[in-house]
Design a protein that fits this description.
four-stranded antiparallel β-sheet; Copine I; Immunoglobulin-like; mainly beta
Length: about 180
């Protein structure tokens, strides 16, 4: 029997994250881990979203989906307050476990975030959407903005662009500029 594999792109968003920072909201980042022979191995991470309790991460997570193989995944949400890649000195905001098959079969899966088994992370949830990558063509665009309104009280504003794509009747964030 042939072993079927396809590349899947996961989009991640969270709602109602607990705040670990004093005086501001957390700066969340999502880490994806996979169970490899009984040990959790980090596969990839999203970007950090500053001061946000309901982030929609623009960086997607790509993973190979092996049909008829149970692939256990763990999503960890961390409050990043430094520039080091190690997570040991960052606050854990919650996590969720599921299989890749659960996400792919439902296309969009929402799970409660847990601080540890049996202990919810407040009302926090994580939503993961899956999309099979079939077409890898590249689109190049050049965008320019002029005479933007200054939205900050003091100094200049920090404008950015967000690009969305439509999937399953819902617009999903595909890219956010710095």
């Amino acid at each position: 029997m042939a072993h079927c594999v396809t590349l899947v792109q996961l989009s991640v968003s969270c709602e109602h994250l607990i705040d670990k920072d004093i005086g501001s909201k957390s700066d969340p980042l999502c880490v994806l881990l996979q169970d490899v022979g009984g040990a959790w191995a980090e596969l990839c991470r999203t970007e950090r979203v500053r001061n946000c309790s309901s982030p929609e991460f623009s960086k997607t997570l790509q993973i190979e989906y092996h049909f008829e193989t149970v692939q256990k995944l763990r999503f960890g949400i961390y409050d990043i307050d430094n520039k080091t890649p190690e997570l040991g000195d960052d606050d854990f905001l919650g996590g969720a476990e599921c299989s890749l098959g659960q996400i792919v079969s439902s296309q969009t899966l929402t799970l409660p975030l847990m601080l540890k088994p049996g202990k919810p992370a407040g009302r926090g949830t994580i939503t993961v959407s899956a999309q099979e990558l079939k077409d890898s063509r590249v689109v190049t665009m050049e965008v320019e903005a002029r005479n933007l309104d200054k939205k900050d009280f003091l100094g200049k504003s920090d404008p950015f662009l967000e690009f969305f794509r439509q999937g399953d009747g819902k617009w999903q964030l595909a890219y956010r500029t710095e």
